[in-house]
Q: What sequence folds into this?
């Protein structure tokens, strides 16, 4: 069991650039979640996939954000035209049905 | 709208002490509640999951309880150790599987 992996672990980008993060869930897990966490706060829900279908999407996910999970395996989160307010830790989690969520190590984004 | 609150925000205790962390939620219609541990700069580690039909779960020195009617969950840590120092987060999983987290309790266990 390799757990949930995320890539890259750190990303520094200039304002206005596009960035893409990848999440590989635990292989048999059909549910995948994206969260954003800022310093001193708990993670905030962004979006949720069941297999390849995106079933929930937070209002936090503006039209600059898009997430995909082709073929119900790995997922990508893209942020277009990054802003300094996008600086945060982006966390991915997976679960089997409604069971425990298992988190990856996160991708720390810094927008300069 | 579900809101999750954790009290206290920070806690410092001497090694060996038993302690309780509190989590409250405003909407009792939850699917499950999960407790996590987070070390600085790292991802979250799942500690315990309590389904809505359960009252408590235990793992080693940890015991979590759930009282849906009062909108409360507690995490009890027995015989605390310096290695327990971390931020502890609770998360309420609501209908639609949107998970709402509290801001966490930062725990420091002094040797």
A:
């Amino acid at each position: 069991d390799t757990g949930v992996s995320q890539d890259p672990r750190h990303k520094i980008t200039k304002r206005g650039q596009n960035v893409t993060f990848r999440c590989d869930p635990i292989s048999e897990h059909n549910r995948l979640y994206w969260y954003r966490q800022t310093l001193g706060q708990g993670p905030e829900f962004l979006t949720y996939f069941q297999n390849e279908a995106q079933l929930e999407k937070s209002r936090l996910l503006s039209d600059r954000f898009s997430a995909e999970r082709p073929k119900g395996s790995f997922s990508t989160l893209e942020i277009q035209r990054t802003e300094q307010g996008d600086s945060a830790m982006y966390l991915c989690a997976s679960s089997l049905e409604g069971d425990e969520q298992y988190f990856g190590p996160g991708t720390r984004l810094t927008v300069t | 709208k579900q809101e999750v609150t954790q009290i206290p925000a920070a806690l410092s205790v001497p090694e060996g002490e038993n302690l309780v962390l509190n989590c409250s939620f405003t909407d009792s219609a939850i699917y499950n509640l999960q407790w996590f541990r987070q070390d600085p700069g790292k991802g979250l580690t799942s500690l315990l999951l309590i389904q809505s039909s359960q009252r408590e779960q235990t793992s080693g020195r940890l015991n979590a309880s759930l009282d849906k009617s009062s909108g409360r969950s507690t995490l009890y840590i027995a015989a605390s150790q310096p290695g327990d120092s971390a931020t502890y987060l609770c998360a309420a999983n609501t209908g639609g599987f949107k998970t709402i987290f509290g801001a966490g309790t930062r725990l420091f266990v002094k040797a």
